[in-house]
Write a structure and sequence with these properties.
Structural class: mainly alpha
Largest sheet: none
Radius of gyration: 17 Å
Shape: elongated
Number of helices: 5
Number of strands: 0
Strand content: under 5%
Amino acid sequence: MNRASLRVKVNRYLYLFFISVFILCVLFQFFTVGLAMFVDSSNWVYHRSLVHLFGWNIPLLLLLFAYLGSLPRLMYWHIFGLFILIFAMYFTANMSFKIPWIGALHPLFGLFLLGIACLNLRSIIKMTFNKIEQ
């Protein structure tokens, strides 16, 4: 195995790891909302805090590993979709005091975020383990 193919393989595995972590974080966000709504409202602090840890950081790492892993253009569109939806999540959370109905879009965008992340995971699994070179 030459040095370039080893670099590509390692970065694709890192991409796979970080998109998996991102999906787990999004799922945990849904869990913290459930905790805040049905157990104790003090759990909202976990929902608000967690997003600042993974929201922009992991997609930036995904962008880096997509480049270093020589991933196809489709993966960049997936990452762009994640960035747009994260922005939409921040927007709907912070602007609902001015436009009340916009807060209702927040959980919908969360589902879209999870969906795109899962599509992204499926694509990288196919590229990594099925020897798809695109």
